[in-house]
Specification:
By secondary structure, the chain is mostly helical. The protein has a domain at about 95-265: Orthogonal Bundle (MetI-like fold), CATH 1.10.3720. Helix content is about 65%, strand content about 0%. The longest helix is centred in the first third of the chain and has 32 residues, at about 85-115. It comes from Streptomyces smyrnaeus. It is found in: Cell membrane. Belongs to the binding-protein-dependent transport system permease family. It is a multi-pass membrane protein.
Length: about 325
């Protein structure tokens, strides 16, 4: 028995010429761009990320004051960091600020993002106003809040019954609180935007089915919205961790590492070592250490969360 092909003869000839595959498709049946399209991005990443990182790693094994030639010292800079109490304290403070930032910004961003994804009255206007801090640089935000919280002329001086002597930068606990608050004020809109987009992508049929089953708004949030935001939550938290460990401008302008070394985080300590002590080798070692810590924490989060498997939250729809 013979089967008559319904494919036009011209199409059959083109497929035969291309090895039996439809033109413009790969062997897997999916059209993919060539690797040349990624070349510009790969070159840019290599020049401005990989090459500097390799140079900093090499410099971390050297002693250099910025004037004379680098002198190889092996692991001398790393051993010096292990014996430096300020460095160990700065690592602890970096982790503390990062954990506090994640703990405060994550729930706040999720709630605001889910709300901004709705259809409430005046939602667009309020969202636009709320996203204004996202348009400002960290330096501008720090200068703004330094003026607002100035102990002599700022808000604390006018509301002494709430802030006491008004010097929020003179005590470690309040200084850390200011750093966490300012960072949350600036970067929560970014993560809110991530959750807003993710919440809008949740299929409405899930909410419709939940309403038919009698589920209220709270149950819909915890049983539908949050599970659908799983991958976005991991992405947002990784960004928070990397950003928290590399925070610099906020500390430099608001507290300058004070009082004493009570807010001297690792990134600021790296700046002090490089541009005040002219110890570029030790500063480079701190930089490499921050990269390693941020990378390890990010990989652990991806591994434990199952995010690396990239399983769809819409499976079965």
């Amino acid at each position: 028995m013979t089967t008559t092909s319904l494919t036009p003869p011209a199409t059959q000839r083109r497929r035969a010429a291309s090895g039996g595959r439809p033109p413009g498709r790969s062997g897997t049946g999916t059209s993919r761009p060539g690797s040349a399209w990624a070349a510009p991005a790969a070159v840019f990443f290599a020049l401005f990320a990989l090459v500097p990182l390799v140079l900093v790693a090499a410099l971390s094994l050297s002693s250099w004051d910025g004037l004379s030639g680098p002198e190889f010292v092996g692991l001398g800079n790393w051993k010096k960091l292990l014996d430096d109490p300020v460095m160990l304290k700065s690592l602890w403070l970096s982790v503390l600020l990062t954990v506090l930032g994640v703990a405060i910004q994550t729930p706040l961003s999720i709630l605001l993002g889910v709300w901004a994804a709705g259809h409430q009255r005046n939602r667009a206007v309020l969202s636009a106003i709320y996203f204004v801090p996202l348009l400002l640089s960290a330096t501008a935000v720090s200068v703004l809040w330094r003026a607002v919280l100035d102990p002599n002329f700022g808000v604390p001086a006018q509301v002494s019954w709430l802030f006491g002597d008004g010097n929020l930068f003179g005590v470690q606990s309040s200084a850390i609180g200011v750093l966490v608050f300012v960072s949350a004020w600036q970067f929560t809109p970014l993560h809110t935007l991530i959750y807003q987009g993710a919440a809008r992508a949740v299929p409405q049929v899930l909410y419709q089915a939940a309403r038919i089953d009698g589920a209220g708004t709270v149950r819909q949030f915890f049983h539908i919205t949050l599970p659908q935001l799983r991958n976005s939550i991991i992405t947002s938290m990784i960004l928070m961790v990397v950003g928290g460990l590399t925070t610099f401008e906020t500390v430099l302008i608001l507290t300058q590492g004070g009082p004493g070394t009570d807010t001297t985080i690792s990134a600021f300590y790296m700046y002090q070592k490089a541009f005040k002590s002219y110890d570029y080798g030790t500063a480079s070692a701190i930089g490499v250490l921050l990269v390693l810590v941020a990378t390890v924490i990010s990989l652990i989060m991806v591994r434990l969360s199952g995010y690396g498997k990239m399983r769809s939250t819409m499976e079965g729809l």
